[in-house]
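Researcher: Quick sanity check before group meeting.
Model: Go ahead. Protein one:
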Amino acid sequence: MFHQLLKVRYLAIVIVVASILHSVAFLLLGARIAVEAYAHVWSDPSALGMSRPGVELLHSLDFLFVSLVLMVLALGIAKLFFLNQSAKDLEELPGWLRIQSLSELKVMLWETILTTLLIVGLSDLIRDLFTPLAWTALVLPAAILLLAMSLFFIRKA
């Protein structure tokens, strides 16, 4: 019976494949936005006040970081569920992928998501500087602060 239950772990393949596909999609979206922003910069530098390519480059960076989060998730899950834990296999992996448990993967993803939220918050703040700010502009920075503090306390414990 237990061996039958272990076959369920192959459902993780679906998660890994979907995450990699999503990661590639976000990578392509980010690259497309970046190419369009660079085209605005090089085509007509006098129209830069109208198009704001810097904001578009930050949005491109948002997509690239989301792609990174999804790739880290896919590789972490694949490593935990499908890679043998022998010393030789672990030596060949990069240092950031030498995780031993789902808890370590969770902390690594938490750090990656915090970095992504920081970039998203920065791009939103820069975009919103051109408009009057409301109290809702503090929601994302407050969420980033709470997540960072909770990560700090989890590591301390």
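Researcher: Fine. The other one?
Model: Protein two, sequence then structure:
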Amino acid sequence: MKAPHLWPRSWKYTTAAAGLAIVGYGSGRQLGTFQSNAAPVPSLASLPADPAVAAEGTPTASDAVTGASESVIEAQRKRIMGRLRSLEMVRRVVTSVRPHVDRAIEQPSIQGDLRKLAASSGMSVEKYKEYFKGKQEADLLLESGGDPNARSIADAIGVAQYLAGTGRQCGLKINVGASEALSREIAQLERKIEWLEAQPVVWTRAVPSGLKGVVPTVPEAEVVAASADASLLPAPSAENVTAPAGEWTRDQWLAYRKSQRQKLVLRRRAVDERYDPAKAITAQTRYLVKLTRRYGGVDWALQAYHGGEGGANRTIRLYSEAAGRRTLLASRGTSIPGQSRLSYAELYRGVTPTATPGAFSYLFGRSDDHRYYWWKVLMAERALNLYRKDPKEFERQWQELQPGMNADAAYYPDPEPLQFANNAALREAYLNGTLVAFPRNAPALGLRTDNLAALDPGSTSLHKGLRPEAMGALLRVAHLYRSFGGKETLSVVSMVQSNAYRSLWKQRYPDPPLPEGVPRDPEFHSTGLVFQIKRPSRDWDRKVLEYAMGRLYDTLRISWRPTSAGGSRGYHLVVNPEFKTEMAAYYQKAVR
């Protein structure tokens, strides 16, 4: 099966504007084979210049999606569209959440602010409202998947994910004690519902005397009013089941329990309006309009909403001080001489470890969810628009992204032909150039290997290589890391492994069980296309490494994720097959 395109072909080769042009070095030689006949590898200073470093310039401030921004947005496609429940969540937001957003934007109290925002943006009021609603709808998809009953581990509640204090500040009525008590009752009912759903369709049980005469149905209007989620309705039985007199079928019991749950859900919404999607979205709209007036754009408004106003303010201040500019903030949309609005896109492209170390350290000290939030919003907006325009095409792309699996599986849907069975297969791969060995002067490049074949030390040399494109990605990460000030030598803790070795590994470190319905990733360690780098011990070097990997991720060359395989914290990287030629050419140029 052909690897899916994770972005439109129309701009696949236009990412030179993002700072990484296609490298057309040609096929070159296959060097670094298992027999140690590799040519000497040059030092870091003599490696080919990387356009990602050379392109560090001062971008212009703009909210427009530039060529540089385009690839950063598309890099989020797998994260947004390729999740296990992406189809369900996008469908729910389009059908159930968007009507609340459409109504909320028309509330009288914010019309004056919207007119001023529209004027400052050069749009008509109606066009600006559509622009604003698209971003807000995307935010709601990211915050909760459109689930009015969502609850985060930080106790952010509802479709808009309010903490209690913020919700009250935005005008919501919140009785935490009453809400928690009802949540416990709802949880008990949900356990009963889960048990019933596990029973065979022919299951029946006697009806208690207190329920004689009750018709076990869930009124559809009540369900829609309570949650706008058709999943709360009992699924139709595959068989026509009739219970004996005095008993209910499984589906009748399910309908009764779900009806009980819905009554509790409505009661909870009355005491905690964070759970009420109409009121929560109306309050969120007022708050986002206020933030947009303050920051001058919805990009920073959403950064502040998601990660806190304090975090947004500090990021802007640190960057502005380093860049030597005065930035428009808290201006209420008025013009202040000598100040200009700093877009999030400009800051994101301008923050580097060398040019803006304070802003860089703060931004990369937060989770990558904060760094990428604006780009996720833009990708989520595209996903919602695609579903609205063509649901079947959305579902096709969702399936192509291997929902629930990592980027490895989306890049390489059929990895089995790429796997190496055993040590003999690895030896043959080095001989014919399918695999290339780790550079012999790796210390000069800031690289070393660490415990590559702990379960089979005698075969370490066979596990010390990758396919040329993956080796090119590794060298490129190392080059960027050193170029932007990384000091600690990077430890590569996993390279190619045979299927036989992976069997030994899984005996020692069994895969954890997955929840029902969650697919397990195929084996990629034995393909030579993935590798793992140990997390640096120094926090600054950790940030610089994540920045280096991010530069390649943002231009679609690789995907990476944190890992703790074997108890060691680090990063798992996979090379994008669409850039196989470029990455292999980088390796070939580097070893000449």
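Researcher: One line on it for the slide.
Model: Confidence is low (pLDDT under 50) at residues 1-64, 221-238, 330-338.
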